[in-house]
Amino acid sequence: MTIKPGARARDYKPFSEQDLKQIDDAIMNLLSDTGVKVSNQQALEIFDEHGAEVDYETQMVKLPQSMVEEAIDSTPSNVKLYGREEKNNLEIGENRVHYGTGGTVLDVLDLETGEKRRINIQDVADIAKLVDALENIHFLVIPVYPNECDDQNVDVNRFYSALKNTTKHIMGGVYSIKGIREVIKMASKIAGSKEALVNQPFISFITCVMSPLILDDIYTDFLIEIAQHGLPVAIPAEPLSGATGPITVAGNVTLMAAESLAGVVLAQLVNPGTPVLFASTASAMDLNTGLYITGEVEMGLMHAGVAQVAQYYGLPLYATAGMSDAKLPDIQSGYESAMTTLLAGLSGANYIHDAAGLLEMCQTVAYEKYVIDNEIIGMAMRAIKGIEVTEETIAADVIDRVGPSGNFLVEEHTRKHMRSEFFQPKVSDRQPREGWEADGAKPTRQRAIEMAKEILNSHQPLGIEKKIDDEIRNEFPHILLDK
Amino acid sequence: MSKMEKVVEEVIAGNVDGVTELTQELVDEGTKPSQIIKEGLVAGMDVVGGRFKKNEMFVPEVLISAKAMHGGMDIVKPLLTEGESSSAGTVIMATVEGDLHDIGKNLVAMMLEGAGFEVVDLGVDVTADEFVEAVKEHQPDIVGLSALLTTTMPAMEETLKSLEEAGIRDQVKVMVGGAPVSEGFANEIGADGYAADGSTATDIAREFVS
Fold first, then answer.
1. Chain A neighbors of B60, CB-CB under 8 A
2. Tell me, what's the ipTM?
3. 3-state helix/strand/coil string of chain A
4. In CATH, which superfamily holds the domain spanning A7-15+72-385?
5. pTM of the predicted model, to two decimals?
C-alpha cells in the first residue's frame, strides 16, 4: 500500500487556540516593534515605498501589522507544485502532508565502500534517480552540492542532473542570480515556454532568512529575482534554539515565524499573489558541544508547532523533519528519523523536506538511508491517514458470522481491506529466523544497500526529450554530467 | 480465453462460484475430470503459489483461492475412476495434548489443502493415542504436529514415541511447527521436518511425497 501524497492529518496539535493567539500577537509585535534588519538596498526601498518604517542607516525595517496581514492575504493558501508526470503533482496547503529530500550536503557514504567521500555530479544524478523510484518520497529538494562546481555554475548543474533523472517536483537552493536565470531558461525549454513553466511549475526555489531577524544582501536579491519571475519559492528561517534563537520551543517557533513572514511580505510586495511557502528549518544547538543538531525530538515538536502556525495564517508550509545526527545508517538514525518524521506529519505540515537520506547533522547523505527513509515515510503516511471508521470497517457483521473460535483468514472482508489497512514494508524483514538466515542473515543496512544498488541498476527515469536535451547541452556547455 | 483458462483465472481470483460453475460446465461438455484438475484447478493454485512466494499475493488470498479450487474439486472428485487420484497426499494435522491453540495449525492445514493435499484435521488437545488411532485409520503420508506453548512441546515427543511403539512410525513422515519449536528441537525428538511458516510446511510436505 502506498498512501497518496497529500493525505490529510488531523491528530497532533501541540498548541491550543489560546496558545496560537498568544504566539500570533508576539510575532506581529516582533515585526512591528523590534523589526528586521534588511541588508539589501532594493528591499529597503520596496519596504519603504509600501509604508514600512525604514531606517536606511541602521537598515532596520519595522513592518506594520496591516502590511503583514495583507501579505498573508495575498499569498495563495494552496500552491500546486507540479511534477513532469501528472502522478507527481502536489498540492501544498492546509493539512495535506508530503515528504521529500533536502539538505545541501558535501559528502556521501560511498555505496560500494561505505567510506565518506566528496559528492560529485554523478551523485546528484543518482540520488535524483533513486528518489524517482522510491514511491513514498514525494518530491526532490536537491540535497547535495557537487565538488566539481563553484557558485557560478552549480545551479544549472544541480537542476540539470535532477531534471534528467526524476519527474518528481524539483526544488533547490540557488547560489547566483546568473544561476537562477539559467535554471529558469533551461526549465522553460523543457516546459515549452516560460509561461508554461510559470503556469505549471515543476521546479521551484529556496532562499533563506538569517537568524535572528536578518534579511541578508545576497539571499534577498535571490528572493526578489525569483518573486519577479512568479515561480514558487520557499523562504525558510533557521533559528537554532539556544544559539540563534530562544532555548524554548515556543520562543524558537515564534522567532522563526516572524523571520519567514518578513520574507513572505517582501515577496508579496514585489509580486502580489506570487506563490511562496512559509518555511522553517528551525532546530537547535547541542548543549554539550555547541554545534548544530538535527535529530532531537524537539525538532519534531517545533515543526508540529510551526504547522499549526501555518494553518492559523492559512499559509502553505515548507517544514523540516527526518534528519539524524548518527554518522551512519544505524539504530540512532532509525529512531531519530522516525520520531521527527512522524511528529511533523501528524500535525499536518505540508511540504516536509530533509525527510530522507541525511546523516551527521545534515553533513552527509547515504544512498541506503534514502531507501530506509522511504519506508519510514510510508509508515508515517499510514499513521497520518489514521483509522477509518464506518460500519464496514467496524465489521460487526463479520465478527458475528465468524463467531467464537472461528477465524478471519478466508473472509472476503479480510481480502477486501488488507491492502488498504496495512502498510507492507520492503526493507523490514518479518520472516521467521530460518528465512532470514537463508537470505544471508543480513542486517537492515545491508538489505537497504542492496535495494539501492538494484534501483540504480534497473530504474529508467523518463529523462529529457533528446532534441531539447541537445539544445540544453549546446546552450549551457558548462553542464558537467556525462552525456 | 478457453473455459479451462477461465478456471485458472477464477481460481487465482478466488471466485468460488465462478470455479464451481465453470467446472460443472466442463464436466457436462465431457472434459476428463483428471484434466480439469491438472490443467485448471491445480494449474491455478500453482500460479497462486508462485505469486505468494514473490509477495504479490497474501495469505488470505491464497486461502480464498484454495477455497475456490475446492469448489471445483468437490464436483470432479467423485467422477474420478479407480486408480486416478486428485490428491497430492494425505496429511493428518493436530495441535498436541494440553494445547488449545489452533490458528497456526488451521492456517497450515488450509495451505496444504491449497497445494492439493487431503488434510484430516484432528483438532486441538489431541493425545498421542489418538494420533496412533488416526494414523491406523487414515493411512496418511504425513503427520503434522503443532504446539504454541513451551509446556506442550514434550507432548510432541510423546506422540513420536507412541507412533514408534505402535510400529507405525516408519509409515509416515512427521513434521512439527509452532512458535516455540525450532529445527534443533525437531531433530532432537526425531521428527522428519520442521517448518517455521505455512508456506515452508507446504514445501516440506511436497518433498516428503515426491
1. 409-411, 414-415, 418
2. 0.84
3. CCCCCCEECCCCCCCCHHHHHHHHHHHHHHHHHHCEEECCHHHHHHHHHCCCEEECCCCEEECCHHHHHHHHHHCCCCEEECCCCHHHCEEECCCEEEEECCCCECEEECCCCCCEEECCHHHHHHHHHHHHHCCCCCEEECCECCCCCCCCCHHHHHHHHHHHHCCCEEEEECCCHHHHHHHHHHHHHHHCCHHHHHHCCCEEEECCEECCCEECHHHHHHHHHHHHHCCCEEEEECCEECCCECCCHHHHHHHHHHHHHHHHHHHHHHCCCCCEEEEECCEEECCCCCCEECCCHHHHHHHHHHHHHHHHHCCCEEEECCCCCCCCCCHHHHHHHHHHHHHHHHCCCCEEECCCCEECCCCEEEHHHHHHHHHHHHHHHHHHHCCCCCHHHHCHHHHHHHCCCCCCCCCHHHHHHHHHHCCCCCCCCCCCHHHHHHCCCCCHHHHHHHHHHHHHHHCCCCCCCHHHHHHHHHHCCCCCCCC
4. Trimethylamine methyltransferase-like (3.20.20.480)
5. 0.92
